[in-house]
Design brief:
alpha/beta; 8 helices; elongated
Length: about 240
Amino acid sequence: MDIKIFLLEDDDAIGMGLKYSLEKEGYSVMHVTTCKDAEKEWSEDKYDLAILDINLPDGNGYDVCKMINSSGDALVIFLTASDAEVNVVMGLELGADDYICKPFRINELMARIKTVMRRSGKGKGASQADSGNIVKIENLNIYTNEAKVTLTDDSGKESQVELTALEYRLLLAFCNNRGIVLSRKSLLEDMWDVSGDFVNDNTLTVYIKRLRDKIEKDPTNPRIIKTVRGLGYMMDK
């Protein structure tokens, strides 16, 4: 699948570097440097993902995000020079799918792009997820449009499961790759904590245990997220 990315970054050096790196990964990239150019070049049926800088010479990325959301359903990742909570919250409330703070490692950006694409059903492995917005595995229900997870008891009653943002991302990683063994390395490349740092191997073990404790009937004998000895983990189809 040819993924088309719309990049709004006013720093020419950063923009050109990102364009080169993204194209090297096989993405098609349109790079613009101002809000005016973004409004001129944007087309709702032309791009799958927009990467938007927040601070621009003639405005800000928030306004461009509003324009994008009003014209279609493209994914949005914000580039921000600050990890201030107000910037992060504002971006997410406007409909952004993720954000990344400068300076960042290009591998981290690539990992986040792949994750939001898989979550949306546009990326590699997305076909493993159900075509609708509700995914059911055993007694687990994932309402992807609402980012809500519930468990159904023996009487048919649903109760909501409270997951952290990273636990939910981890669950979706398995959900979008059902029937595929995910190595610890591949999971680590896609996961990061709220401060933007990659999760280390020990922390991944903790998160998988916490997730199992919340969604499995018997966490010591998991039926949803299974361990494949020597290889990694897998969620059955």
